[in-house]
Amino acid sequence: MIRWPDEVRASLRNDALPKIANQVPHSGTLRAMEPDIDPKNIVGSIIKGSRLLDLYSTDRRELSLGDFTRETGYNKTTTYRLLQTLVAVGWLVRSANGGYRLGTRLLVLGAIARADLDLRNEALPFMQRLADEFGDTAFLMVPGQHGAVTIETSVGSNPVQVHGLAVGAVIPYHVAAGPVVLAAFSPEIEAVALAGERRQFTPRSTTAKAALRAKLAEVREQGYAISMEDYIEDVCAVAAPVLGPDGHAVASLSVGGPTNRFTDDLCERTVARVIEFAAELSTRMNS
């Protein structure tokens, strides 16, 4: 079963780069970051450690302590402590001749990132088709520790967009179509949804434990979820699960928009299309 990251990584504001650069050498890690995190919350030692990892390439698979100190400009004691820490967490391993090579734990992280990337790439065409056909916003969500994490969106022609559901948004499992589908099709996530606190976002939010258990059972039986203003007023959505090889949800595919657009006929067509695309996406991801 695919295991997804618990959260979308926080990032660094562009205007903070000069301040960080004054403290540690610039690295590809910093260049790859996006805005929205206060620079005072950045841990300098982690950035320094990432600078060591940046020195590896397909042509340089093993580096010595001298290589690291020479190319980073760090002193020998600091570099050694950073390397020992990276070895302790499994990101680096010592070779027989005393050099340092990348550890297998990075392979696990790489596999997670690759699975995430593959899912996005496979899902985007379906999401765009949903957005084009219905004019609303399509969402791709994956399980997180505290709720469903929105990892991709496709906005349709409808000028009304769903605010509060941007990429990176975390939504509790007891509300909204996408999170509810994840909980309904994963025993692990269902247990989290039933055990945790359930906030009343709108009068339609399902907060009682017994009512939520019954709702998840119904979603499981019908194969999809419909959210009717239970998370955001005047917003409805339809979602279906993307299933892994074990039949448990690894993601949800959904489309949502203003309530006044979800007429019976349109809702029926939306449900059929979302189920169709989610099933095809499941097949592609498991092939």
Short précis:
With 287 residues, the chain is an alpha+beta fold.
Question: Main sheet, how many strands, which sense, barrel?
Answer: 6 strands, antiparallel
Poorly predicted runs of 5 or more residues: 1-35
Assign a percent range to the helix content: 40-55%
Number of strands: 9
| Fraction of residues in β-strands | 15-25%
From the N-terminal CA to the C-terminal CA, the straight-line distance is 13 Å
Topology order in helix (H) and strand (E) letters: HHHEHHEEHEEEHHHEEEH
Helix/strand/pairing category: alpha+beta
What would you call the shape? elongated
Layout of SSEs?
Elements: H1 17-21, H2 28-32, H3 44-54, E1 62-63, H4 65-72, H5 76-88, E2 92-94, E3 100-102, H6 105-134, E4 137-143, E5 148-154, E6 170-171, H7 177-184, H8 187-195, H9 209-222, E7 225-228, E8 235-243, E9 249-258, H10 264-286
Antiparallel strand pairs: 1-3, 2-3, 4-5, 4-9, 5-6, 7-8, 8-9
Helix pairs in contact: 4-5, 6-10, 7-9, 8-9
Structure description:
The strands form two sheets. The protein has a six-stranded antiparallel beta sheet with strand order 6-5-4-9-8-7, with helices on both faces. 44% of the residues lie in helices and 16% in strands. It has ten helices and nine strands. The longest helix has 30 residues, at 105-134.
